[in-house]
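lol forgot to send this yesterday, sorry. struct tokens for the thing we talked abt
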């Protein structure tokens, strides 16, 4: 009888310890550079003091963060269907050479007061709103998205309808898409609606949201580059000078100051990034 009671006590203690461990490591549906955000790492997701997450407000904060990912996963992935916020402090950079830089299944608000450069490579789209009916709001910040597609929504596979919406509010935005292996890329498209509040399109000057094409167009063609400005300051990420190297990083995202043998990532003064391979 005592042995059975002892076994029972041991089982109960093990269950309580397991429950406590599970409670201590509550996971969020947010992934940063392949690292799932949990209550254990939310205060410093990448261990360098630049990325944090608040469970109560569902807010991911980038504070002068440089996130470089060479894997098949996105730099930032919001897997939840619940609305989230991406808060920007200081100057932030996302670079990905194999996948979309920022993917959201939910409505997402990207807010300042900081800035964000998303620079994709090859077939990468920069910001992909793939949640049905999701709204992307970009407000009170400076943002650049440069890749195969800049900022893109999604077409419902069952209804063939576009349901994602894009709102830009008091924001300076430059979005660039380009041709990749014969496939056209565009600045802003696949949205049911795109609206502006406290800012407007300044390049191309006659561009507009063309509902039939579900994106920003000039005439009957979707634009490869679109610049949105509040008109209160110089448009960011636009350099009149010939592009030159502004910052250099290794593949871990660590900033380096001298060129080195191997693969590095160079950020240009116009916001673009490039992968450089140096040999002896």
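and heres what i got for the seq, position by position
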């Amino acid at each position: 009888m005592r042995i059975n009671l002892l076994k029972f006590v041991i089982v109960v203690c093990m269950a309580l310890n397991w429950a406590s461990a599970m409670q201590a490591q509550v996971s969020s549906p947010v992934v940063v550079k392949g690292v799932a955000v949990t209550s254990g790492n939310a205060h410093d997701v990448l261990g360098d003091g630049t990325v944090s997450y608040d469970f109560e407000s569902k807010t991911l904060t980038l504070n002068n963060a440089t996130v470089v990912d060479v894997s098949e996963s996105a730099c930032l992935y919001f897997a939840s269907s619940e609305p989230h916020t991406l808060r920007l402090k200081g100057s932030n950079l996302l670079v990905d050479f194999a996948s979309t830089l920022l993917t959201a299944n939910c409505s997402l608000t990207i807010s300042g007061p900081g800035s964000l450069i998303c620079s994709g490579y090859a077939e990468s789209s920069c910001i992909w709103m793939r949640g049905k009916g999701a709204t992307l709001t970009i407000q009170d910040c400076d943002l650049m998205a440069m890749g195969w597609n800049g900022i893109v929504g999604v077409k419902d596979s069952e209804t063939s309808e576009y349901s994602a919406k894009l709102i830009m509010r008091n924001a300076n935005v430059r979005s660039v898409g380009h041709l990749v292996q014969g496939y056209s890329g565009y600045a802003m498209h696949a949205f049911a609606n795109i609206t502006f509040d406290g800012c407007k399109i300044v390049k191309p000057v006659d561009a507009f949201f063309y509902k039939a094409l579900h994106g920003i167009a000039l005439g009957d063609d979707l634009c490869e580059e679109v610049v949105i400005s509040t008109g209160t300051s110089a448009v960011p990420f636009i350099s009149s000078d010939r592009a030159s190297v502004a910052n250099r990083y290794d593949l871990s995202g660590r900033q380096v100051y001298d060129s080195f043998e191997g693969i590095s990532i160079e950020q240009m003064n116009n916001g673009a990034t490039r992968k450089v391979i140096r040999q002896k």
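The first helix runs from residue 2 to 24. anyway ping me if u want another try
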